[in-house]
From TrEMBL:
The keyword DNA repair does not apply. It comes from Iamia majanohamensis. Residues 416-451 form the UVR domain. SUPFAM superfamilies: GIY-YIG endonuclease, Ribonuclease H-like. One of its GO terms (cellular component) is excinuclease repair complex. Residues 231-308 form the GIY-YIG domain. The keyword Nuclease applies. Pfam families: GIY-YIG, RNase_T, UVR. One of its GO terms (biological process) is DNA replication. This is DEDD exonuclease domain-containing protein. Residues 1-20 have a biased composition (Low complexity). GO terms for molecular function: DNA binding; DNA-directed DNA polymerase activity; exonuclease activity. Keywords: Exonuclease, Hydrolase, Nuclease.
C-alpha cells in the first residue's frame, strides 16, 4: 500500500537481534587516533636510546592536541644520527629522562588507537622502555599507515616511505626526521588513506584494521558480489550455487557490512560461509527497526544453515499450574487452559525447569504427583518443611489455595511475593557463610526476574494496540500489538512489511492468548530496539498506550568487585617546578612534556 507520513529527524539507532556476525565496529569518524613518532640513537630497542617523542591526537579530522619533548637517552648520539635528525648531545643533556616522559606520554595516549608509519619500530622501543620501567605495555589497537599505503596507493608511488608519500600526495606537513613533524605528516597521510578506504566500503575501525590483509583473503575475488549493494540499512542474504539461502543478516550500511566479511575474518564459520557463497542479495529497509524485524522473519521462514540465533524453534516450553484440586507446577510444550495459569514461553525445557525450581523454593507448592489421601505420610519435601503435600489427606484446601493464588499474583502483578522469599533465603545462607548455596539461590532468583521482565515487556507491547511511531531520520512505523505492520522512510512512501520479502508476521491470537515463541521473539526485538532508541523516538498515536509496568524488578545478577589499580611505579611529583627545555624553535617548554590543544587549519 502507498501513502505518506512525516516523522522527526535524528540519529539512526542500532537495531537489536542476533549479533554473531553483524558487528560493524566503531565508526571511523568517532575513533580517536593518536599518531606518534620517535627519534632514537639508532641502536636496539633494549638499549632505550629514545631521543625525542612526538604525537598528535586526532578525531573526526580535527587535531585535539599535540605532545612533543626531547629525551635524555643517557648515552651519546652517533654523529650520523645527528646529521639525519639534527638532534645533538647538547640538546638532550638538559632534557628529562625517559621515566617521567613515559608517564606523561601514556596519559596523553589514553585509550586512543595508536597510528604510526612502520609503527612496529616505534612500538618496539616504547614497549621495551615501559617494561624497563616496570610499566605495562601498550594494549591499544594499532594502525600502520605503511601497510595501509601498500594496500591503497602502491600503484601511485615508487615506494611507501613517509617522505615519498608526503611529497607525491602533497600532504600539508612534510617529514623532517623530527618526531612531531613526522607525526603530523603521518596524521595527514592517515586522513588521505581513510578517504581512499571509504571507497572500498571501510567505515568502521574493525574493517580498517583488517584492510591490509583483505587483498590476500582467499575469497577476495568474490568481492564483485557486493558491487551492487547500496549504502543503506537493510537485510542481506548469502546464497549458494543453487540459490538456497545460507545466511541472513542485517546492517545499517549493506555495502560496508557485507564487504567486511572479506577482511581476513579467521572464524571457521565465516570462511565456510564465503566458500559456499555464489550470490548476495539485499532488501533495503526504511530503518534499522524494519531491518531487525525483517531479519527475524526471514530466518524463521528460511531457516538458513549458518544462522544460529533468531530461529523460532518448535521446542519452546511453558510452566503450567495444573488444574488439579491441589495444583502443582509442570513444564509443558503447549498451552492448555487459562493463560493466567501459564508462564513462558521458554526457549528450552531446561530453562523452564530452572524457574520451576526457583518458584518451589520461594513458595511451598506441592512437588508430588500422588492422589490426595493415597498415602499414610506426606512426601519427603513436606516432611522437610519445604512443601505442602496432600498425599496424607490432612492438607487444608483453603490454606493451599492461598499459596496457589500467591503464585498467580506473583507472576502477574506482585513479583515481591516470589522474589522476597528468595532474597531472604540468599541473605540467610550468606550470613551462615554457605556461599555456594547462596549463589545458587541468587541464580534461581535471577532466572525468575529475567522471565518476569521478558513477560512484562511482551505483555506491555501486546496491550498497546495500534501505535504509530516517528523514528530517527524521518522514518516511521506502525505497530499492531507490538508487531511491526507498516514502515516508511523519509520519502513518506508506506509499505506493508509482510509484502516486502514475502514473509508474513507471526500469528497473534490476541492479548488474552499466550504468545508463540516466534511472536515473543519479534515483540522482544521491537522492545529492545525501542529501549535503545527511546530518546530519539516519538509516539505519534497509540490506542492502548505504551507504559512501563510497576513496580520495578530487583536485580539479582552477580556483581564483580572493581579491581583496584596499583601503579607499578610512583607517579611523578608534579608539585615540583619543571625545568625548561630548549626546543628547536628556541621557545621553552615545560618538563617533561606539554599537550597543547589545537585545530587543523
Amino acid at each position: 500500500m502507498a501513502g505518506s507520513r512525516t516523522g522527526t529527524t535524528g540519529a539512526t539507532g542500532r537495531a537489536g537481534g542476533q549479533a554473531s556476525l553483524d558487528d560493524l565496529g566503531t565508526p571511523l569518524h568517532d575513533v580517536t587516533f593518536c599518531v606518534l613518532d620517535i627519534e632514537t640513537t639508532g641502536g636496539r630497542a633494549d638499549d632505550g636510546g629514545i631521543t625525542e617523542v612526538g604525537a598528535v591526537r586526532l578525531r573526526g579530522g580535527e587535531c585535539l592536541g599535540t605532545f612533543q619533548t626531547l629525551v635524555n637517552p643517557g648515552l651519546p648520539i652517533p654523529p650520523q644520527i645527528t646529521v639525519l635528525t639534527g638532534i645533538t648531545d647538547a640538546m638532550v643533556v638538559p632534557a628529562p629522562r625517559l621515566g617521567p616522559v613515559l608517564a606523561a606520554f601514556v596519559e596523553f595516549v589514553g585509550d586512543a588507537v595508536i597510528v604510526g608509519h612502520n609503527v612496529r619500530y616505534d612500538m618496539g622501543f616504547l614497549n621495551a622502555a615501559l617494561e624497563h620501567h616496570d610499566r605495562p605495555r601498550f594494549a591499544n589497537r594499532v594502525v600502520d599507515t605503511c601497510a595501509l599505503a601498500r594496500r591503497l596507493v602502491r600503484d601511485e608511488v615508487p615506494n611507501c616511505r613517509l617522505g615519498t608519500l608526503a611529497s607525491r600526495l602533497r600532504l600539508p606537513h612534510q617529514p623532517s626526521h623530527r618526531a612531531l613533524d613526522d607525526a603530523l605528516a603521518t596524521g595527514d597521510l592517515l586522513h588521505v588513506l581513510l578517504e581512499r578506504a571509504s571507497g572500498l566500503g571501510v567505515l568502521g575501525l574493525d574493517d580498517l584494521l583488517a584492510l591490509p590483509t583483505m587483498a590476500g583473503h582467499p575469497q577476495a575475488a568474490k568481492l564483485r558480489l557486493t558491487e551492487h549493494l547500496p549504502r543503506a540499512p537493510g537485510v542481506y542474504r548469502f546464497r549458494d550455487r543453487g540459490g538456497r539461502v545460507l545466511y541472513v543478516g542485517k546492517a545499517t550500511d549493506l555495502r560496508s557490512r557485507v564487504r567486511s566479511y572479506f577482511s581476513g575474518d579467521e572464524r571457521r564459520k565465516v570462511g565456510q560461509l564465503l566458500r559456499e557463497t555464489e550470490a548476495v542479495d539485499a532488501v533495503v529497509c526504511s530503518s534499522t527497526l524494519e531491518a531487525a524485524v525483517l531479519e527475524l522473519r526471514l530466518i524463521r521462514a528460511l531457516d538458513p544453515r549458518f544462522n544460529r540465533q533468531g530461529r523460532a524453534r518448535g521446542g519452546q516450553a511453558w510452566i503450567r499450574l495444573t488444574d488439579e484440586q491441589f495444583p502443582r507446577l509442570s513444564v509443558v510444550r503447549t498451552v492448555k487452559g487459562p493463560p493466567a495459569d501459564h508462564l513462558g514461553p521458554f526457549p528450552t525445557h531446561r530453562a523452564a525447569a530452572r524457574v520451576v525450581e526457583a518458584l518451589q523454593s520461594a513458595l511451598p507448592l506441592r512437588r508430588c504427583q500422588g492422589r490426595p489421601g493415597s498415602r499414610e505420610a506426606p512426601c519427603a519435601p513436606a516432611q522437610l518443611g519445604r512443601a505442602l503435600c496432600p498425599c496424607a489427606g490432612d492438607l487444608d484446601a483453603e490454606v493451599y489455595a492461598r499459596v496457589v493464588d500467591a503464585v498467580r499474583t506473583g507472576w502477574q502483578r506482585r513479583p515481591d511475593l516470589l522474589l522476597s522469599p528468595l532474597a531472604e533465603q540468599m541473605d540467610r545462607l550468606a550470613r551462615d557463610e554457605r556461599f555456594e548455596e547462596a549463589a545458587d539461590v541468587r541464580d534461581r532468583a535471577g532466572a525468575v526476574v529475567a522471565t518476569l521482565r521478558r513477560r512484562r515487556r511482551v505483555d506491555a507491547l501486546r496491550a498497546s494496540g495500534r501505535t504509530e511511531l516517528a523514528l530517527p531520520g524521518g522514518a516511521g512505523a506502525v505497530l499492531e500489538g507490538g508487531v511491526l505492520t507498516a514502515a516508511w522512510g523519509p520519502d513518506g512512501q508506506v509499505r506493508s512489511l509482510d509484502l516486502v520479502a514475502g514473509v508474513p508476521p507471526p500469528a497473534d491470537d490476541g492479548p488474552d492468548a499466550p504468545p508463540s515463541a516466534a511472536l515473543t521473539a519479534e515483540v522482544l526485538c521491537v522492545a529492545g530496539w525501542l529501549d535503545r532508541a527511546a530518546g530519539r523516538v516519538r509516539v505519534v498515536e497509540s490506542t492502548g498506550g505504551l507504559r512501563s509496568p510497576w513496580p520495578a524488578l530487583p536485580d539479582f545478577a552477580a556483581r564483580r568487585p572493581r579491581p583496584t589499580a596499583v601503579p607499578a611505579t610512583p607517579p611523578p611529583d608534579r608539585s615540583r617546578p619543571a625545568r625548561p627545555v630548549a626546543g628547536r624553535s628556541g621557545v621553552a617548554t615545560r618538563r617533561p612534556a606539554l599537550t597543547t590543544a589545537g585545530r587543523r587549519r
